[in-house]
Amino acid sequence: MCAPTERVLEALDREGWAFAEVKDEALVGALRRAAARLWRAGRFAPARIGRARTRAPSIRADWIAWVDEGMDPALDRYLAWLEELRASANARWWLGAWEVEAHFARYPPGGGYAMHWDNPQGREDRQLTVILYLNRGWRPGDGGALVLETARGRVRILPEAGRIVAFFSALFRHGVMRCARPRWSLAAWLRRRRELFASPRAF
Known about the structure:
This protein is α+β, with helices and mostly antiparallel strands. It has one domain (about 5-45, about 60-195): q2cbj1_9rhob like domain (Jelly Rolls, Sandwich), CATH 2.60.120. The chain is built from three helices and eleven strands; from the N terminus they run H-E-H-E-E-H-E-E-E-E-E-E-E-E. The protein has helices spanning about 5-15, 25-40, 75-95; strands at about 15-20, 45, 65, 100-105, 115, 125-135, 145-150, 155, 165-170, 175, 185-190. Strands 1-9-6-11-4-3-2 form a seven-stranded antiparallel β-sheet. A hairpin with a 2-residue loop joins strand 7 and strand 8. Residues about 195-203 have low confidence and may be disordered.
């Protein structure tokens, strides 16, 4: 088990978002090394906005590499946990989330991501957002905090290695503050199948 699934689900029930930690430092380190290998191999591409049409570094500065099963043993283990989470979330809330999509992300120094929603306007395919951070020894002065708009105000979470943040994609606007050093993460979405897109739901 990568993270306490039931604890994550209970927090999502209470607040709509959850914070957890992966205690397996070896797994987190292996994922960080897998991301670095893909970076060195030129597998990352600049992220885009507007349904992947526009490159706008002043709004979104990260580079991303989509991942699949079979690319790396550590990645397979983490994706298996996401599948466990997906099945449990479907059983609990009838989300209709039948797929997991995920990518590594790397923000360069000075990069960030303006406040945004994870679903493009008029879409609701992404049901749950799950972000794992891969940065050892991250300090407040390094910037790069996740900013999550909640009912109790804005929450800022530093991207320290092993931290997981999960939230209902349709409920929370969020962003990334500018970072002073390279910032690595593994972002995933539990989503509906593409052919099942529907109009936005009122939560």
